[in-house]
Amino acid sequence: MSTHINAPEGAIAEAVLLPGDPLRAKFIADNFLEDAKCYNEVRGMYGFTGTYKGKRVSVQGTGMGQPSLSIYVNELFQFYGVQKAIRVGTAGGCSKDIQIRDTLLAVSACTDSSLQTQRFGSMHFAPTADYSLLKKADNVADELGIKHTVGSCISSDMFYDENSNWKLWAKYGVKAVEMEAAELYTLAAKFNRKALAILTISDHMLTGEVTSAEERQTTFTNMMKIALETAIAD
Fold it and tell me: Catalytic site residue 203?
C-alpha cells in the first residue's frame, strides 16, 4: 500500500519524470503536458499525469535528498508499475569542462550516502544509468542542439559541504554534485527498471556563478525537453 502517493490504480503512467521541486512538477505539467490531471497532493508533493505527443507521461515531485526520493521511487516502482524513471534536477558544477546552465546526462552516480552502507556494508555498489535511456537522451540532445555533457555526478547527503569534499570527487573526474541520482539508480537496479538523471548546472563551485530560485524552478527547460522525448521513446 502506498503511503505518500495517494493515487488510484492506473493514474500514473509507466514513464515518470522526477523533479525534486514539486513546483517544477507543476511547471512541467502546465507547460508540456496535455490534459494534465493532478493525482497527488500529499505533503504538497505534487504528481500529475497527462500526455506528451499523444503518449501518457507522469511527473512526480520527490523532495530533496536521497531518503526523500527513495520514498517516492519505492512507491512508484512497487505500487504503480513505473518502468522508466527520469530525474530532472539541478546540480552544482565542479569541473572546468562544464558550465553553468549546461545539461549533464549522468552516466553514473557516486555517493557518500549511508543508504548504501546500510544495504551493502563494506561492499561498494556502482549506481549506473540505464544505457538505452542514456543513449536516447544523448541523441535527443544532439538533435535539439542542446549543449550537454555525458559524465558522472556525485549524490551527496550534505548540501552545505564544509569539508569541500567536491574537490576530491572532481579530481576523479566527477562533473557535478547533486543529491538524488545514486538512490534512483540503485532502486532501478533492485526492481529491474530503467532510470536516468538529467541535470542542469544551476551553480558552479569553481566560478562561484549561481542562478536564481525562480530560474531554477521555471526556466531550465532543456533538460525537460530531453527527458520528455526520452520518456516517450519505444
Answer: yes
